[in-house]
Amino acid sequence: MRVAVQDAAFDFGAEAAAFAEGRAVSGAVVTFTGIVRDVDGGLQAMEIEHYPGMTESALTDIASEAVTRWSLEDALVIHRHGRLEVGEMIMMVATAARHRKDAFEAAEFLMDYLKSRAPFWKREITTDGAEWVAARDEDEDALTRW
Amino acid sequence: MDVLYFAWVRERIGIPREAVDTQAATVMDLVDELRGKEERYEAAFADISALRVAVDQQLTDFDAPLSGVREVAFFPPMTGG
């Protein structure tokens, strides 16, 4: 299991390949990556603030919980902070399990918990100024299914 | 204890962290003390339901006790991923 909080870009392909390589027991590897998207045409960049120390321990706790609940062989979480331009990758998760259902569910669980339990805050820099992204009720509601 | 602020809470208060000398028994008592200090704290803590708190880097509630605690952090709901 690996958790990384970094400002540097990561190579999604290389990370996914390294994660999947050499697995003899895991029949399923699921990966997900989040990308800075421009919905309304005015987004210039995203700034991501985090809580050094707590972020790493919160991600480790969330990933450990996923490994235990779905008997994962492995899990990976990478999350960036700092300024990210439109089209850049913010984060990725990967899960490895014997069966695909576990790998998919664990990846979704990781994403749902990352959204509202890991101390990251997004600020959108647009042509009109900068604004903190508000948490959505749906993100909190998503946790109830786990 | 150290009190940390993140995102718009940090912006409203104007500093990312400070050392606070307090005998507050709970997080809520600490919030009430801070509110009484200056207008910028009142602005940041006006709506507690819009805030989250971590005590020694663990998410908790506003009625959490502060005995023996080294670090308290206030921030808006998280928006990662």
TrEMBL record, chain A:
InterPro entries: MoaE_sf, Mopterin_biosynth_MoaE. This is Molybdopterin synthase catalytic subunit. One of its GO terms (biological process) is Mo-molybdopterin cofactor biosynthetic process. It comes from Tateyamaria omphalii. Heterotetramer of 2 MoaD subunits and 2 MoaE subunits. Also stable as homodimer. The enzyme changes between these two forms during catalysis. It holds the Pfam family MoaE. Converts molybdopterin precursor Z into molybdopterin. This requires the incorporation of two sulfur atoms into precursor Z to generate a dithiolene group. The sulfur is provided by MoaD. Keywords: Molybdenum cofactor biosynthesis.
Automatic annotation (TrEMBL), chain B:
InterPro entries: Beta-grasp_dom_sf, Mopterin_synth/thiamin_S_b, ThiS/MoaD-like. CDD domains: Ubl_MoaD. It comes from the Bacteria. Coiled coil: none annotated. This is Molybdopterin converting factor subunit 1. It comes from Tateyamaria omphalii. The lineage of its organism: Bacteria, Pseudomonadati, Pseudomonadota, Alphaproteobacteria, Rhodobacterales.
